[in-house]
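Page 37, continued from 36.
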């Protein structure tokens, strides 16, 4: 069997060459001939595949077929894992799964490549798949185990869904750290208020307490709504919003936050103020995350710029910071659970994209050049769904 023929298909990472359908069928018969193989893989609760050295599927269990809505193994033979799971990056290059630039950061392909070289590997992987015209995010644990059958090398690949585990860790991080810090600050001010006798000082303290309490409620509501959004249960209530006025409020709010001292938020003076129909609550959350992420990427003494303008019947918000985002981060930035801030984070940019594209009928993108990193959120003047409220 000739497996050394070089492919003319370009690749940005893993080799693109494949075996013919006939060669894959021959390999499939070899694997299927193993006594008890079918019963063994079908007994596993996780998606399981057997791959050849070209990363093509030669065998799989019913769990995979059920997950992708396939009726028989013949529907997936010869394809690669990302292609049958409908990973959005599998279509980025003509070589398919494993050959796009984005695949360089994929835990699955790197585990598989180690498996083809004879090494067992286990990694976490974030996959964005397209199902019925909607994007869905998956967190999986990938295990690649090399095996030899009739002097041929194969890799057994298993995918375990850990989305619930990752979500639990993220919520624990948010509630036990972020929200706890806010609640502790609230408690500290309440204790301080017991000794305040000056009326003006008391008024100022009450305003501060009110602001912190609102922040606490908003942080909890944001996590609740994100869970509802992923479950397609989020209710969108529309109202008219002044585009510039919202940015003025957020720029003032974040410029005064203690955690961002030494960093300023500057509102571009050319920002346009137009009245458009959207969800004020969801839009505010998207813009908050855009500004927070920019501030967290900005050094002391540096400035984040924000603005908005109208073009082609669209309202376009932008947030720019002076830091050049590294390429490996660019390739993963909108994936759920990906974060540069450590474990248990990574919902900020993901939620921006989810809320904007699924519920606000807009789009999120970014550009990177020598001057820094800019994020853009684009929304229509009108919204086809939802209900207007005064």
């Amino acid at each position: 069997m000739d497996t050394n023929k070089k492919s003319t298909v370009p690749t940005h990472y893993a080799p693109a060459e494949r075996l013919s359908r006939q060669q894959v069928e021959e390999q499939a018969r070899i694997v299927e001939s193993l006594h008890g193989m079918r019963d063994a893989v079908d007994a596993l609760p996780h998606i399981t595949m057997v791959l050849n050295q070209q990363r093509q599927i030669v065998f799989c269990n019913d769990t995979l077929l059920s997950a992708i809505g396939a009726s028989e193994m013949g529907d997936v033979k010869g394809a690669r894992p990302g292609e049958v799971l409908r990973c959005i990056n599998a279509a980025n290059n003509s070589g398919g799964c494993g050959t796009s630039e984005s695949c360089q950061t994929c835990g699955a392909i790197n585990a598989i490549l180690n498996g083809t070289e004879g090494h067992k590997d286990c990694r976490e992987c974030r996959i964005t798949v397209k199902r019925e015209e909607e994007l869905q995010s998956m967190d999986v644990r990938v295990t690649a185990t090399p095996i030899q059958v009739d002097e041929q090398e194969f890799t057994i690949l298993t995918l375990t869904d850990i989305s619930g585990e990752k979500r639990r860790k993220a919520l624990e991080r948010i509630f036990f750290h972020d929200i706890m810090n806010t609640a502790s600050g609230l408690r500290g001010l309440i204790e301080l208020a017991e000794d305040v006798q000056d009326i003006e000082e008391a008024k100022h303290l009450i305003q501060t307490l009110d602001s912190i309490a609102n922040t606490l409620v908003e942080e909890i509501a944001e996590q609740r709504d994100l869970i509802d959004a992923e479950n397609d249960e989020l209710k969108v209530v529309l109202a008219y919003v002044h585009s510039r006025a919202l940015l003025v409020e957020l720029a003032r709010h974040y410029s005064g936050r203690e955690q961002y001292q030494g960093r300023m938020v500057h509102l571009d003076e050319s920002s346009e103020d137009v009245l458009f129909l959207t969800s004020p609550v969801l839009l505010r959350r998207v813009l908050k995350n855009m500004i927070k992420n920019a501030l967290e990427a900005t050094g002391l003494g540096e400035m984040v710029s924000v603005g908005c303008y109208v073009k082609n019947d669209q309202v376009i918000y932008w947030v720019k910071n002076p830091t050049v985002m590294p390429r490996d981060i660019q390739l993963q930035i909108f994936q759920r659970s990906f974060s540069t801030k450590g474990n248990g984070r990574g919902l900020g940019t993901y939620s921006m994209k989810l809320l904007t594209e699924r519920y606000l009928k807009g789009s999120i993108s970014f550009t990177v050049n020598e001057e820094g990193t800019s994020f853009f959120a684009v929304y229509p003047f009108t919204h086809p769904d939802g209900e207007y409220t005064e």
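The first helix runs from residue 21 to 32. Flag for discussion at group meeting. Residues 1-5, 383-390 have pLDDT under 50 and may be disordered.
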